[in-house]
Design brief:
Helix content: over 70%
Distance between the termini: 28 Å
Oligomer: single chain
Structural class: mainly alpha
Number of helices: 6
Shape: globular
Largest sheet: none
Amino acid sequence: WPYAAVLLKSLASQCLQQDTVTWNAVISACAKGMVPSQGLGMLRGMQECAVRPDTTTFNSACAAAWNDWRLAVALFTKLLSCGLQHNSITFNTAISVSERGRNW
């Protein structure tokens, strides 16, 4: 995940466009690297840069929550409040987070 974050910063410094797909890839890398605070920080950073999140963004952020089922529920609520549609990945990720947090 650290390389993904560096690449994202590099895009900004070279005046290249950062889009939803780019941010999603970094958030997903944070989830896979099991660094939830970084993944959620990237979600905030994305919003600060006026890049609109999509369902994949919230799915990746939920995966980054790792075992914090309360956070997963909050992200699901945020997804809905943004007017986005959930999908099977959304539910599967939330279930996995709940299972890891032993809140099943």
